[in-house]
Amino acid sequence: MDDGGREYFAAACLTPKETIMSQYMVERHLPGITPEQLTAAASRAKAVTAKLTDEGKPVRYLRSTFVPSEEKSFCLFEAPSAERVREANVLAEIPLLRIIEVAHIAADDLA
Fold it and tell me: Which Pfam families does the record associate with it (predicted)?
């Protein structure tokens, strides 16, 4: 998809008051993590992104998916850049393998 298509896609998913931000998936390898530790990490991500946004650095933690058989987590963020997502994760002290830009399509968004 070229940039024009991504902009159209992003704009089609927004309400008038929302700002266009890209979505980023953070891949993590979390061997031995407990459900409680996973929940605590997600809570830190949510709190840190809210604080950064309040400071004028918009970034939003959306959700996490954990794959127990691989000890991996995939966390979805909205931000103007991958660097902002990295900053949030460093501040939240959550390890990561990589950050990749993604396009999210939900069943509810489809006709």
Answer: SCO4226-like
How far is the C-alpha of 7 from the C-alpha of 20, rounded, in Å?
Answer: 8
Is 12 part of any domain?
Answer: no
The percent helix, strand, coil of the chain (3-state, each to 5) is: 40, 25, 30
Total tally of structural domains belonging to the chain: 1
Asked if 91 and 52 touch (Cβ cutoff 8 Å), the reply is yes
- Residues 60 and 51: their CA atoms lie apart, in Å, by 10
User: Does residue 87 sit within a domain?
Assistant: yes
The whole domain housing 38 covers: 27-64+81-104
Instruction: Confirm whether 6 is domain-assigned.
Output: no
How does pLDDT run along the chain (111 residues), one tens digit per residue?
A: 444 444 444 444 444 445 578 999 999 999 999 999 999 999 999 999 999 999 999 999 999 999 999 999 999 999 999 999 999 999 999 999 999 999 978 899 898
CA pseudo-torsion sign 78, 25, 94, 33: positive
